[in-house]
Amino acid sequence: MSIDVGGVQVPVSVIIPAAGTGTRMGGGTAKQFLPLRGEPVLVRTVGLFSRCPLVDEIVIAAGNLETTRQLVGHLPKVARIVPGGQTRQESVWAALQAVHSRPRIVAVHDAARPLLTPEVLEGVLCAAALHPALVVAVPVQDTIKQVDDEGRVVATPDRRALWAAQTPQVFWADVLVRAFRQAMADGFSGTDDASLVERTGVPVRVFRGEPGNIKLTTPADFRAAEAALEGGA
Ligand SMILES: Nc1ccn([C@@H]2O[C@H](COP(=O)(O)OP(=O)(O)OP(=O)(O)O)[C@@H](O)[C@H]2O)c(=O)n1
Ligand SMILES: C[C@](O)(CO)[C@H](O)COP(=O)(O)O
């Protein structure tokens, strides 16, 4: 339930932002509550962290607190379920304030990414002993185009330097708290947690993950996830 950082056992807290409304998914039910091969997405995601021997506590930012409590409130290591915010960033901040005091390692993982593997999770948590900020990511396989508002291609970045960020994103707690405070002071809103840390100058490293750790955003993602699980759990 902790990581050895220079001989000191540092507990690991996990934040699960699970307060989204699933606009891009459509339908009336928030996607984190939808079944994926019979098991709600949220249960799959939280269960992975409950079973991880390196995790000390789980804090969930929820939109529907009652449904969230019913689904995962009983799972091991679920310490607190707090109200989320209007944005993912606000939800993470709400959960971060509910994390026990420092020093800690904090891993932030989207509820909408239920296909994370134990191997990647344990690998990035162990790497956090050496690095203050880590992003699970995969190298981009397609050629990426930068496009203006008129649909004109304005640049083709060198693909060798491009990685697609996923979650978990793992940080030394004080680094993350400072980054969130700076972002709020500056009115900065990022689409991930690492972008807040990057702007503070703290070095952020990628940890190579797996392409299968997709975020369930649209119905097509659900179909892909169902197919991926067809042969597995
Ligand atoms: N106000 C918000 C918005 C998002 N999230 C969470 O952040 C993760 C990634 O967000 P996303 O995939 O965008 O989920 P939604 O915001 O629900 O999707 P959409 O943007 O299509 O509405 C999800 O686990 C989602 O529940 C959150 O906790 N609080
Ligand atoms: C955090 C994230 O999953 C990294 O790829 C992504 O930025 C979340 O974006 P969303 O629009 O909140 O789903």
From TrEMBL:
<feature type="site" description="Positions MEP for the nucleophilic attack">
    <location>
        <position position="159"/>
    </location>
</feature>
<dbReference type="GO" id="GO:0016779">
    <property type="term" value="F:nucleotidyltransferase activity"/>
</dbReference>
<feature type="site" description="Transition state stabilizer">
    <location>
        <position position="31"/>
    </location>
</feature>
<dbReference type="Pfam" id="PF01128">
    <property type="entry name" value="IspD"/>
</dbReference>
<dbReference type="InterPro" id="IPR001228">
    <property type="entry name" value="IspD"/>
</dbReference>
<dbReference type="InterPro" id="IPR029044">
    <property type="entry name" value="Nucleotide-diphossugar_trans"/>
</dbReference>
<comment type="similarity">
    <text>Belongs to the IspD/TarI cytidylyltransferase family. IspD subfamily.</text>
</comment>
<comment type="pathway">
    <text>Isoprenoid biosynthesis; isopentenyl diphosphate biosynthesis via DXP pathway; isopentenyl diphosphate from 1-deoxy-D-xylulose 5-phosphate: step 2/6.</text>
</comment>
<comment type="function">
    <text>Catalyzes the formation of 4-diphosphocytidyl-2-C-methyl-D-erythritol from CTP and 2-C-methyl-D-erythritol 4-phosphate (MEP).</text>
</comment>
<keyword id="KW-0414">Isoprene biosynthesis</keyword>
<keyword id="KW-0548">Nucleotidyltransferase</keyword>
<feature type="site" description="Transition state stabilizer">
    <location>
        <position position="24"/>
    </location>
</feature>
<dbReference type="InterPro" id="IPR050088">
    <property type="entry name" value="IspD/TarI_cytidylyltransf_bact"/>
</dbReference>
<feature type="site" description="Positions MEP for the nucleophilic attack">
    <location>
        <position position="215"/>
    </location>
</feature>
<keyword id="KW-0808">Transferase</keyword>
<protein>
    <recommendedName>
        <fullName>2-C-methyl-D-erythritol 4-phosphate cytidylyltransferase</fullName>
        <ecNumber>2.7.7.60</ecNumber>
    </recommendedName>
</protein>
<dbReference type="InterPro" id="IPR034683">
    <property type="entry name" value="IspD/TarI"/>
</dbReference>
